[in-house]
């Protein structure tokens, strides 16, 4: 993770701590489906991973993801997502929802607990990475804990 992204994640953790969010346990931390507020830097999607996209097809750019394919990294299965420029440059939570729904339509097995949170976290805080690697082996800890973990919760080692 680049210094800028790491700095944003640390700044967000400090803001969340000041708001009392960081002191919550995993049982009472906001989940993506339950969250009604979002960080002030870039909005995040608050709908569940099963929710219909909230972006209007007439205003959504044509292609948001160049590629989404299963790969193996260090013995772990990962969905390699290569976002397109409109998604990389966006701060629109509805666009993130639409992009995730497009990924799930193309790769239905990607619709597993925690994967959407990793996707939105990468779109929000690591948009400039060449590709986003989403691992189904990572635990579903909710969006805010995914953010606090630098988009990579759990014991799976991030190799890039």
Overall SS class? alpha+beta
Are there runs of 5+ residues with pLDDT below 50, and where?
5-58
- Number of extended strands: 3
- Tally the helices: 5
Radius of gyration: 15 Å
Kindly report the average pLDDT value. 72
Helix share bin: 25-40%
Strand order of the largest sheet: 1-2-3
Give the end-to-end Cα distance, rounded to a whole number of Å.
7 Å
Percentage of residues in DSSP E strands: 5-15%
Concise account of the structure shown:
This protein has a 3-stranded antiparallel β-sheet. The protein has 5 helices and 3 strands; from the N terminus they run αββαααβα. It is α+β, with helices and mostly antiparallel strands and 160 residues long.
Protein model, in words:
- Helix 3 packs across helix 4.
- The longest helix has 17 residues, at 3-19.
- Helices cover 33% and strands 12% of the residues.
- The chain is globular and about 35 Å long.
- A 3-stranded antiparallel beta sheet has the order 1-2-3.
- With 160 residues, it is an alpha+beta fold.
- It is built from 5 helices and 3 strands, in the order αββαααβα.
How is the topology of this model organized?
Blueprint: H1 3-19, E1 65-73, E2 76-83, H2 85-89, H3 93-106, H4 115-125, E3 132-134, H5 143-148
Antiparallel strand pairs: 1-2, 2-3
List the defining traits of the structure above:
alpha+beta; three-stranded antiparallel beta sheet; 33% helix; 160 residues
